[in-house]
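Quick note —
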Amino acid sequence: MTDKQPAEIAQVAAETGAKKVHRSWDRVLVSSFLAGAYISFGALVAITVSSGLDPATWGTLPTLFMGAAFTLGLVLVLVAGSDLATGNMLLVPLGAMQGRLSLRDVAKNLTLVLIGNLIGALLVAFFLAIQSGVIGHAGASGSAGLTFERLAGIAQAKAENESHWQVFLRGIGCNWLVCLAVWMSLATTSISGKILAIFFPIMAFVAMGFDHVVANMFFLPAAIFADVDGVTWGNTVLNWLFAGVGNLIGAVVFVGTSYWYLFLKDQPAREPAHGGEAPERA
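Predicted structure written out below.
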């Protein structure tokens, strides 16, 4: 089967978004829990491979290594199948733009998926990152100490150094790229093609320091659990709020609406899809 062209991708994306809504709430919650855990695995390995690299020697290369490793998260989401809020911010509103869904459907799905993503991220952060000792504590020696220092640097930058305006703008840039990765992954059915489509946009947003609300559901709580100075639940929730709004705009405005206008606007509206709980791929 040949790869899909952009106009065909738009049709598949709208159909995928419609299918995501017409499932029972418990399946959506389990699927989104998995996605939150998968993104957290990507974040954890990204911290691990980029820790201990002195910027005086390595310059900005640690962020490149981190970005390359973080792609694991979206590969797991899209290939294994689960619901990630930032991907659904593209696909589900696109289904609504084509007349398949209501705004209520969109709001309900995104709310439930964000809750599931948060539960998955918190579980990995607390048990598999901190309680397991993969990320150590202040003063720890060896690799655990290095991962603690790396986590602390990332979390303090997000919680204390970035203004709300900066987080919002970084959220837009992040999900513009994430949704392009999701969009391009729909062009092919091959595993290798999907991984290639995912790799460069995800590596780029991480390397540039953009803010992904679900990744931050891992980084910031993990820092709180590890007692990193200056990271509190108050500035964590504010970061999630501004990053999440930025992510939504990046998805809906710069990817969803743009491609709807280019390829779907002149297509006849369709009735909302019902039934058919196919495995989710974004």
